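not sure who needs this but someone in the group chat was asking about Adenosylmethionine-8-amino-7-oxononanoate aminotransferase from Anthurium amnicola so here u go. i didnt clean anything up, its just raw.
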Amino acid sequence: MQMIDPLFQRVLVKECQSCKIPVIFDEVFTGFWRLGRESAAELLGCVPDVACYGKLLTGGVIPLAATLATEAVFIAFTGDSKIKALLHGHSYSAHPMGCTAAAKSMQWFKDPCTNPNVNVEERRLKELWDTEVVLQLSTHSAVRRVVTLGTLCAIELSAEGSNAGYASVYTSSLVQKLREDGIYVRPLGNVIYLMCGPCTPPQICYEQLTKVHQAIDQFSQSQPRKI
């Protein structure tokens, strides 16, 4: 899991827009507090021309997606002929249950009465992952690096050769062990990551991360030693 320098992204967006190249943000995964801010656009301080949202838009309880566009993009598809129009529509477009869930979800996430994790003044989530446990994991002999951002905690295990990279199955036994303990992490090669909700109590995150730390201890001890 690679984190791109925010400054590079801001400069890239600025250069594209100065050259009249439309900028599209895929926020299906990152939107609605996933990265600690309400959107990646807000985190970067950028305004894309088009942005796509889903997943946490409804709190994950029912499918719904939304595509937003600037006025300039919208006007580009207006005219007297449907040849110019963006003929977009589905059988379940704007279905009432999804829209109701989305309206409630967006309100729920940003209200400190329903989400004690939100810092209203700074418009961000409070730190969810215990810094001491993160530090312990970061210095673990079996771990190359740890990245936490908002509701995400990604752990890259030290691996070489065929054990490293996206296609690796290096973490299979570790993932299985964690599932037996009721913890569902997603493997990306030799990287595993946890993802909580914007309203998840930090204590739950602490307990989950502590179990992951213990499982990595056992996992590292079971690996063949280099001679």
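also The helical segments are 6-18, 40-44, 71-75, 96-110, 131-138, 172-180, 202-222. if thats useful
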